[in-house]
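Hey, I was hoping to borrow your eyes for a little while. I'm sending you its amino acid sequence along with the backbone structure tokens. Take your time with it, there's no hurry, and the full record follows here.
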Amino acid sequence: MFRIPTITKNLLIINVLMFLALIVFEGRGIDLNSVLGLHFFLADDFHVYQLFTYMFMHGGFTHIFFNMFTLWMFGGVVEQVWGPRKFLFYYISCGVGAGLVQMLAQFGEFYVLAESQVPGFNIGMVGEVARNSQALLNLWTTVGASGAIYGLLLAFGMLFPEQRLFIFPLPVPIKAKWMVCIWIVVELMAGLGTSGSNVAHFAHLGGMLFGYIMIRYWRNNPGGGGYGSSRGQQFFDRMKENWERRSHKKTDRWESNGDRRRESDWDYNARKKAEQDEIDRILDKVRRSGYDSLTDEEKRKLFNGGR
């Protein structure tokens, strides 16, 4: 636990504590899932804060176990790449987005039910029918971190598309990008092919959808894409940009042991290209494994490059 990145570790702890609180309060006749779970927006029990609290509640031990196992398995890797603030923003946004998509799917289900049972039903009668159906609508409650977790799975697949993973029950490893595609197809087919299921398939897809939108935005807007990244990562990003900018300056001289020597343009460009490739490799290693993973020689090269 002490080696897990800060945000991932705290999310694990909060989810476990909330699950224990759920058990304790159930013994006293209070259902925390009903209070903090996400209700349908036309239900009397709906509150805006539930869009945030529902992702920390779970419906049982199996539910929380698999969600937390996936968070532990993939969350730490994504957090190390993005930094804690960007990772937390992404996680919460995917959870909220999943809740919004789930309520949209619930509205579609509500509309179909009303149309099949109320003669002459139309969109203008939604409010009236909803008021007369509160006993049913208040039962439509969504809990679980699955929407945010599926957003993390998408992020891992987009960050490391060629990484091979063993996924039960497949007997051979599969690339992360294909794993994500398979999950999307499975969730979409399950969401369209089941009615009245207690699994929020569209919430899973909603988490992935919002995650995809954010990642694409960050990639297309590098200036804004650094939102929430750690100061260390921002420092190394600036260092890399400065290095690349300076490497394109034209010069035919270099200094060695205080002596000035001349070199051809071809030799200079080849040397600068090799130095830049080495710095890029070191910076990529920092993003993946942290600054402490560097050797003394790599730290020296990085320091000299930044200087």
The radius of gyration is 25 Å. Residues 84-117 form the longest helix (34 residues). The beta strands are 38-39, 141-142, 164-165, 174-175, 253-256, 259-262. Residues 250-261 have pLDDT under 50 and may be disordered.
